[in-house]
Amino acid sequence: MENLEQEIANNLLQIKAIKFNPANPFRWSSGWKSPMYCDNRKSLSYPHIRDLIKEGFVELVKNQYGVPDVIAGVATGAIAMGALTADALNLPFVYVRSSPKSHGLQNMIEGNLEKDQKVVVIEDLVSTGNSSLNAVKALRNNGARVMGMGAIFSYGFEVAKRNFEKNDCQLHTLCEYHTLIEVAIRKGYLKKEQREQLEEWRKNPSAWEQ
């Protein structure tokens, strides 16, 4: 029986939410080239995978943070999964925009958030951590006590680890990079000889060339 992390990794690979192509790298919006691409939002289209991730987040929140006052999702990728997690825990939900709304009340946080409420942030994917931590800063600026963050997947970049440490924010993921790679090789989504290319990329993703 596969454990939860391996099961999530296998499901994300099956639905092509995570793809590998070291020979013809993907280009991220940041301009970085990458031998792999991750779009965890695809999981929302598959009820059994969606439920698996939701249940994983429920256990992650309880085991790592206890029960917070509020669950916050990072827009846009984690709004749906954050709301599902909040619903399963019977907790209020808010979401955090990447920037304040340009009209109306110009909110950056949507929903009701009171000062000093304990918040766990839900994210779909962490790369450098910058956008995720912008959401944490916005919540703190609004008086929230951020307990930490849960994400479906993180590439495990050193820059992300440093950023989370610098911002005094815990990060726990449902699936980590090394487990994903092991499952991908075992299931035939990735060749063993391609592992070294991915490791070289992961050491310095901003300067990597295949």
Secondary structure blueprint with pairings:
Blueprint: H1 4-14, E1 18-20, E2 26-27, E3 33-34, E4 36-38, H2 47-65, E5 70-74, H3 79-89, E6 93-96, E7 109-110, E8 118-126, H4 130-141, E9 145-154, H5 158-166, E10 171-176, H6 177-186, H7 195-203
Parallel strand pairs: 5-6, 5-8, 8-9, 9-10
Antiparallel strand pairs: 1-4, 2-3, 6-7
Helix pairs in contact: 1-2, 1-6, 2-3
Largest sheet: 6 strands, mixed
Count all strands and give the number: 10
Helical residue percent band? 25-40%
Helical element count? Answer: 7
Secondary structure category: alpha/beta
Strand order of the largest sheet: 7-6-5-8-9-10
Strand content: 15-25%
Run of helices and strands: HEEEEHEHEEEHEHEHH
Q: State the CATH architecture.
A: 3-Layer(aba) Sandwich
Radius of gyration: 17 Å
Shape: globular
Total of domains: 1
- Kindly provide the name of the CATH class: Alpha Beta
Distance between the termini: 36 Å
Mean pLDDT: 94
The residue ranges in which pLDDT falls below 50 over 5 or more consecutive positions are: none
CATH topology: Rossmann fold
Describe this structure in words.
With 210 residues, the chain is of the alpha/beta class. The protein has one domain: Rossmann fold (3-Layer(aba) Sandwich), CATH 3.40.50. The protein contains seven helices and ten strands. The protein is globular. The N and C termini lie far apart (36 Å). The relative contact order is 0.16.
